[in-house]
Amino acid sequence: MLKIIAISTALALAAGAAVAAPAGYGSAVVRVGDLDLGRPADVERLQRRLETAALEVCGAHAGSVRMVKQAVARSECYRETLAQASAQVRTGR
Question: The whole model's pTM is what?
Answer without folding.
Answer: 0.70
